[in-house]
Amino acid sequence: QVQLVESGGGLVQPGGSLRLSCAASGSIFSINAMGWYRQAPGKQRELVAAITSGSNTNYADSVKGRFTISRDNAKNTVYLQMDSLNPEDTAVYYCNAEVYVRRWGNYWGQGTQVTVSS
Predict the structure, then answer these.
(1) Which residues are within 8 A (CB) of 48 and not within 5 positions of it... i.e. 6 or more apart?
(2) Measured between alpha carbons, how far is residue 106 from residues 20, 34, 66, 97 in Å?
(3) Residue 101 confidence (pLDDT)
(4) Pick from 78, 77, 96, 87: which is nearest to 114 by CA?
């Protein structure tokens, strides 16, 4: 019923930038919070950044000042601009959204790999 499709991952050198996108599609009535999580090898999935429907934002301490989350409500799309990337940012990045179809549900994208390496 609801699909979240991420794009924009890849390989980047330390200090570089990437922009992730996540578009939600399906029988969507409304979207509340949207966010980005990441999971590095051998580690638990962690919240990177989140944004409410009113554009209030929340960031992990490790990315504050380097990453910026934004959304386009008309396109049901959330973005993550990542600057000053370092090797510790290497992970699979997952999009997450709270979506109302017939009731509120929590949905995940398939993940996109971000690798920071020289």
Answers:
(1) 35, 36, 37, 38, 59, 60, 63, 67, 80, 93
(2) 20, 10, 27, 6
(3) 92
(4) 87
The closest of 22, 15, 23 to 82, measured between CA atoms, is 15
- Give residue-wise pLDDT tens across range 60-72: 999 999 999 999 9
Q: Are 77 and 71 in contact (CB under 8 A)?
A: yes
Inter-residue contact 89 to 43 (CB < 8 Å): no
Task: For residues 115 and 10, give the distance between their C-alpha atoms in angstroms, rounded to a whole number.
Answer: 6
Span 40-69, mean pLDDT?
97
At a CB cut-off of 8 Å and minimum separation 6, what does 90 contact?
A: 40, 114, 115, 116, 117
* pLDDT confidence tier of residue 116, bands split at 50, 70 and 90: very high
Per-residue pLDDT band at 1 (split at 50, 70, 90): confident
Within a 10 A sphere around the Cβ of 33, how many other Cβ atoms?
18
